[in-house]
Design a protein that fits this description.
87 residues, alpha+beta, Alpha-Beta Plaits, two-stranded antiparallel sheet, globular
Length: 87
């Protein structure tokens, strides 16, 4: 039982690849918000150019949104099929 409580309090993270260069933190959060409460959404940007590196991370405080996300076969954001994996 102690492990279930520990998992519930830790963040459940996802790696999201193949992001369109036009997607920022807010767009990433908005897409995944439909699956559950997003703790944070972060797109990785190149420090020199300021351009998106095409991937990011999304975290949830609960495992249920992750399960719903994994059960969907395809995730499309602004025309790109996203590569979504547990981080």
């Amino acid at each position: 039982m102690a492990t279930a409580n520990k998992i519930g309090k830790s963040l459940q993270r996802l790696y999201v690849g193949n992001l369109p260069w036009t997607v920022g933190h807010q767009e990433l959060r908005a897409y995944f918000k439909e699956f559950g409460r997003v703790s944070y959404a972060n797109v990785v940007f190149d420090k020199k150019t300021g351009c998106s590196r095409g991937y990011g991370f999304v975290a949830f405080s609960d495992i249920k949104p992750i399960e719903r996300i994994e059960s969907e076969q395809k995730h499309v954001l602004e025309g790109n099929y996203l590569n979504v994996q547990k981080a």
